[in-house]
Write a structure and sequence with these properties.
153 residues, mainly alpha, two-stranded antiparallel ribbon, 6 helices, 69% helix
Length: 153
């Protein structure tokens, strides 16, 4: 039992290290094009067809004001433009500008290049096994996170 506990603690530490390293890499990629990670995430969402700031705020568990601030920053950088929605005059519709499209392409290209450089020489069966295990682990953690704790009202 002690051996399994030690292995579990090592696995948790390794996952934390991986998460930190992936976050550090995202910061590097975002800085490379003059953005923060948060700006990159919002820019990526704006590039989708059905972007709604309020929905993004709920998904990210942040305030609509925080999303609005990032949208203003992206507007200021000339990466997005806003227009009044033709369906509802109270809503704004956001789109990437040409410059915003270029920044997204650069980010996607650099990310693809980094993925190829990092993952391409790993044995494919190991990558497949890791992907499957990581998916199962994520599913279990997601289910576990919905269980109440002793301190929940």
């Amino acid at each position: 039992m002690e051996s399994q506990t030690a292995d579990i603690e090592t696995a948790i530490g390794s996952l934390g290290r991986l998460a930190d390293l992936f976050q550090r890499r995202r910061v590097q990629l975002a800085r490379g094009v003059g953005l923060t990670v948060q700006q990159w995430r919002v820019l990526e969402q704006v590039s989708t067809e059905h972007f709604l700031p309020s929905l993004l705020a709920r998904e990210r568990e942040c305030t609509p004001a925080a999303i609005s601030k990032i949208l203003r920053q992206l507007l200021g950088k000339g990466l997005i433009r806003a227009a009044i929605s033709s369906k509802d005059g109270r809503q704004r519709r956001y789109q990437l500008t040409g410059e915003g499209c270029g920044v997204m392409e650069q980010l996607r290209g650099e990310r693809r290049q980094a993925i190829r450089a990092f993952w391409s020489d790993l044995p494919s069966e190991e990558v497949t096994r890791f992907a499957r295990f990581a998916g199962e682990l994520g599913d279990r953690l997601e289910q576990f996170s919905f269980q109440p704790t002793r301190n929940d009202p």
